[in-house]
Structure formats: C-alpha cells, structure tokens
Specification:
- By secondary structure, the chain is of the alpha/beta class.
- Helices cover about 35% and strands about 30% of the residues.
- The protein contains 9 helices and 11 strands.
- It has helices spanning about 40-50, 80-90, 105-115, 120-135, 150-165, 180-195, 210-215, 230-235, 240-250, and strands at about 1-15, 15-25, 30-35, 55-60, 65-70, 75, 90-95, 170-175, 200-205, 215-220, 225-230.
- The strands form 2 sheets. It has a 6-stranded mixed β-sheet, with helices on both faces. A 5-stranded antiparallel β-sheet has the order 2-1-4-5-6, with helices on one face.
- Strand 8, helix 6 (about 180-195) and strand 9 form a beta-alpha-beta unit.
- The longest helix has 16 residues, at about 180-195.
- It is globular, with a radius of gyration of 18 Å.
C-alpha cells in the first residue's frame, strides 16, 4: 500500500509557480529523502501533504485514499470534513523550528494534541507522553521547561509530540537546519531509530549523510519540479541529471 501518492501537483504564490507537476509515491515503511537547493519547492511540497498549503492542481492520496483532486484550487473530492481530518491525523510533521509552547513543560507539550485533538483522557495522555519522551531519550526531562533545553533536546520533544498522535506517516521539514552543528547528531539518531522501526518517513533534508545512510529513495527537486529519483547509491555515485550532479558537487 502506498502511504503517500501525489499526481501532477501544482502550486503558485501569485505569479510565481513553486510546484510544477510534482508526482511522487512513498510506500509503506519507506524512507524518502528530498534534497535540492533553497527555493526548490521542497518545504512547500511537504506542507501541501497535510493541507498547511492548499494546492492549485493535482491529486493527493494518503494511504491509497484520494483526499484532494484539485483544479484551479477547487477540490472535487466530496468527503465529510471529519473523515478527511481523520486521514490527515495519520500524518505527523516536524518543522525546522520546534514551536514548543514556552509556558508548558516538555511532557505538557507532548500531551496537548492527544488530549485536545484525539480526546484522550489526561492521565492516559500523560503516560503516553512519558513513553514518547523516553523513546527520544528525554525520559529525565519530562518536567523541564523548553527554555532549559538545548535546541537538539527541543527538537526531540517536537518529534515526541508528533509521535504521541500515533501517526502512520512522519514528515520532517529540515529538522536539523536550526540546530548548532554539535546538536544535529542527536536528532538524526532519533530519526534513524524511527526508520529502523519501520516508520514511513518523508524527509526534506540537507544532511546528505543521513540521506545516504537511511533513505530507501532520494528525490532531487529543482525549481519546483522533481528532476531525478533513485536509490542513494545511484543518486550519490552516478546521478543522471546534470542539475543533480552540479548540486551534489556543491554540497559534498
């Protein structure tokens, strides 16, 4: 079963076309890394999958269910909003910035969505949050304020917060780009653990080492379009597209 599939996705901001006929399939338990220069449309594409950005044209499937079939910004799929929201709740997302609530402790940040969105009782949500924080190596920080955590720890809390909703798909939008270099490894280690556990993941990243090691498929985006896809060994050793080759020469 494909977990994510898009066909011919287009998106413009005013007269600027930022996504151009983007078609991609992510299979169950697959890790797909999207690489490319700034401004390639990578983050916009990721945000379109959970409706943080509304597409102009194209189709978006989640777990083989067609949620959006758009033409000129109008979605023709007739579906009860709660049914669509249930499908979208299967998609967790971790952003570049941690976006933790500063007035809530680590465990309170992780509890919020299960309590308020999934309507889980507070005691049950707290126990789930504790387990999620332990999973990302922060079992000793559950009552710590975000301001007392390093950037890497805050990002791990953000990952725990997404996992607490029990998603079947995780989206990562350059999750290490806001971190000091010495903190990147601890976040990548958690992501590698998730990949090893079989989590379906779509990752926008500039961490070529992570893509080489963890990805099943690497996607190169440039100027709003997918120019090349392939297995890591092929993409990094023998890219077929000239633009891919130029980009990799600049970052490797």
């Amino acid at each position: 079963m494909s977990m994510i599939k898009t066909l011919g996705v287009n998106k413009s901001f005013g007269h600027i076309r930022v996504l151009k006929e983007v078609s991609l399939t992510v299979e169950q338990k697959e890790v797909v890394c999207i690489i490319g220069p700034s401004g390639a449309g990578k983050s916009t594409y990721l945000r379109s999958l959970n409706r943080l950005e509304r597409i102009d044209d194209g189709q978006i499937y989640i777990e083989d269910k067609l949620l959006f079939d758009c033409k000129n910004g109008v979605n023709s799929v007739k579906m009860h909003p709660e049914e669509r929201n249930r499908a979208l709740r299967e998609v967790g997302m971790v952003f570049q910035r941690f976006n933790l609530f500063p007035h809530k402790t680590a465990i309170e940040n992780v509890m919020m969505a299960p309590v308020h969105v999934r309507r889980i009782p507070a005691d049950e949500a707290r126990e789930k949050a504790r387990l999620m924080l332990e999973r990302v190596g922060l079992g000793d920080k559950i009552d710590t304020w975000p301001s007392q955590l390093s950037g890497g720890q805050q990002q791990r809390v953000a990952i725990a917060r997404a996992l607490a909703m029990e998603p079947r798909i995780m989206l990562f939008d350059e999750p290490t780009s806001a971190l000091d270099p010495e903190l990147v490894g601890e976040v990548l280690a958690v992501m590698k653990q998730l990949a090893a556990a079989g989590m379906t993941m779509l990752v926008v990243t500039h961490e070529i080492g992570f893509a080489r090691e963890a990805a099943d498929q690497v996607v190169f985006m440039f100027d709003g379009a997918i120019l090349e896809t392939g297995a890591p060994e092929q993409m990094f050793s023998n890219p077929r597209n000239d633009r891919t080759r130029q980009f990799l020469q600049s970052v490797l």
